[in-house]
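Reproducibility note. Readers wishing to regenerate the assembly model reported in the main text can use the exact inputs given here. Chain order matters: entities are listed in the order in which they were concatenated for prediction.
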Amino acid sequence: MSLMTFKGTMLSNLFKKPVTTKYPFEPAVYPEGSRGHIEIDIDKCISCTLCAINCPSGAIKVDRAARTWEINRFDCIQCGYCTQKCPKKCLHMEKGYQTPGAEKFVAHYDRPPEPEQPATPAQAPKG
Amino acid sequence: MGKKSVVPFGPQHPVLPEPLHLDLVIEDEVVEEAIPSIGFIHRGLEGLAEKRDFNEMMYIAERTCGICSFGHGLGYVEAVEHIMNVQVPDRARYLRTIWSELERLHSHLLWLGLAADAFGFESLFYEAWRIREKVLDIHEMTCGGRLIFSVNKVGGVLRDINADQQKFILDQMNVLEKEIKNIAKVFLEDYSVQSRSKGIGVLTTKQAHELGAVGPFARACGIKNDIRLTGYCAYGELDFEPIVSNDCDCYARLEVRIKELFQSIDLVRQAFAKIPAGELETKVAGFPKGEYFVRI
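Running the prediction on these inputs yields the following structure tokens for the assembly.
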């Protein structure tokens, strides 16, 4: 048993830089591959709804007719399961966590309108 | 001799690792007895598991607890894999072992920090949690999350640890070992810590058996029982002995956890020395049907 066993650590800590950063005045640094939030490349989306069906917390809503993709950022648990399920690989996880907010909101994405199909060529008259 | 009175300690105290309510029986200024009520966080996960897809349920099972998330997910996938007779690749088994031990490091450091806070040693609490940050950084680098790993899946793991990351982790293990030695000296030798932990909260070996104590808590009561000895994941191929103390008090619990920190560092090194190259996952077909019981 001894007294003052912590004094060495205490004194050395006095002359060290703080281990914390001055967030938000200094940016937070995230490593590569950090599961921060879901991003969608909406141009590639085909509204297959696999992400919405497989989301464990039901945060994603897809409307095939209205061509929209919505995510409730506050319900999302950043598990990344939708990114594995997406057949077009248009979902991916980016760095940076969802910041807290006073109100919940739904992030809304619209798919670009379908390119107009070229008119079918008029059938050549028979005979 | 004063009259005994009962003071309720919180409706539910949320700061401790689990919400709990204590009835403190006080005589003068000495707490004679503490009667706990637990079970405030039942979430109905069993019912949810019946409705959800078995792959999706992994992510929910893992989120039962922020401190031992990998253990919950691992228990779930091991059970499903046994039901479906899936053989997990060797590399995945070793990666699971490494992440389990990294999680044990952060969990024990968190516990030690909270213990230091509970016996009124704030600077030691911050020192333990400062060291824990290094382990959390390794988690984020290898899995993408600081506390919730989400790397397990039925049949294997989703991410690999590459050579650069392996070198970084092994370097960090040397740093951690040095820093933990520094706080171990305070936890185990300091007069003020010993006066607040020796002979306090005694749970005899018999009581521990009867109450079904598990993990480091049971080992601090003299029960030589470590579920890792059953050899799940890659533990069967690693060399370790369970750490046991016969003192049965709070000091014994501190001692067991401190020694297990060094044991975890050693197991991470052993696992990296033996990890084979190869596949990360096996293809799984069909649905699980049956029952299996896993202890992790």
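We highlight two features of this model. The helical segments of chain A are 7-14, 50-54, 81-85. DSSP finds three helices and five strands in chain A.
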